[in-house]
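Practice set, problem 2.
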Amino acid sequence: MRVLHIGKYYPPVPGGMEYFLRDLLVALSKKGVQAYALVHHHKTGIPSSLENLEGVRILRAEILGHFGFAPLSVKFPKFLLEWIRYEKPDLLHLHLPNPSALWALILPLAKDIPWVIHWHSDVIPSPRTLKILYPPYSILEKCLLRYASLIIATSPDYLHSSPVLKNFPSKCVIVPLGIDTKRIIDSTSLRTNWAERMWKSGSFRLLSVGRLTYYKGFDLLIKAMTKLPKDIMLHIVGSGNLEGYLKALTKEMGVDDRVIFDGYLPDEYLSALFHSCDCFVIGSIDRTEAFGIVLMEAMWHGKPIIASNIEGSGLRWIMREARCGLLFEPGDIRDCAEKILWIKNHPEKALEFGKSGRHHLEKNLLISHVAEKIIGLYEALK
């Protein structure tokens, strides 16, 4: 079986959607599916390239720039047409949101092949740019969903809360995301020693990871630190457009000695920080945080988790199913701080949360489990 995946980006470009796509393609290829992907380069000036990564062919299309949050590529439809014409895939697997997937509506050859749409998240028109751009995009988005043979939602909570997916209930199935734990690098003694030096001696260690953007709620975590004892430290791993603002906020709040920005870290260093922290915390504020791949990385490391209780998000669903930590009310700084303090003061319960999360991950959320379910869906469409 040959399946062409249409994605936005692909690792080493960081991101939950990107990491999942990589893990899924590798897992599918190991199970006998010829899976390959058409994606974009993430920066201008990089020529289109065909790569073979871990046995999977990845074609990255050159981009002219970005419009809103979307990459613009005049070569994307040409590559899509060529790959359909010459590779003759049995299925198209479209990962949304991704405006370039809309080219499938225009190409007759694409419309002759069954489509699977992987609905990673709704487009939440929060920033001003998205409020302007989303209405016309939403019309074409619904056309994509009408043509699709099958729509994969990543959690029952997200499916039931999505104003878009509610129009296509008979096409929707639930398959949670998963991770390949083999790519989570075990901490060497060298990296572990580095991580230990990053924390103050005797501190309670909080870790948060993600793109420094509006919906991740890092400003809430920084403000929560002002309500916590001075022996609590927070490391924030990631980069993004709000980095300058968030660093200035830590100084304004007087917590710049306890909140450390690490920027982007290679996997072995990130793994070492996960290994050395006491608790993982996610402060996201809306359903743009649809699932949380990084949540599963924390579960793999056996860490208790404190997360935002976002209605309709898969984040809350995983936390409830895995019993791996505590939820706080979205945007509630005091509630967040109280949950952190509770975990600090109840180490035995924190250990139970960590073990429960690890067990749930190994039983339900490994990429091998997810790939098997998706192959079953593919075969039903042949």
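Problem 2, part (b): a different protein.
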Amino acid sequence: MQLLGAGRDADVFALDGGRVLRRYRDPGKTADREAAVMAHARSHGLPVPEVFDVDGPDLVMARATGPTMTAALARRPWTLPAQARALARVHRLVHAVPAPDWLDRPVGGPGGGR
């Protein structure tokens, strides 16, 4: 498998042309909750990759292609206003999605703590 990227907790590998594997480095951590949040967001129209499979620390999902916003800005810095509008639009979409009942509430927020 080809390593595409590494984050704080997980690595992302190419599986085939359309799918990636996100694997948590801690084998005791499961991707079930992340998959459920992604499915909930996707069901409300957010541009979230489709989840195909979850198995312990492994999450198989659709591969998102294209340049990152940072890369696009580095090549074409004059597009900053348009990039900022796009980012704001996505933030508005995220905030419009109702939280599922099973999602933990922040400490001090409605419904108590974690």
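Answer key, part (b): The domain at 1-65 is CATH 3.30.200.20 (Phosphorylase Kinase; domain 1). The radius of gyration is 17 Å.
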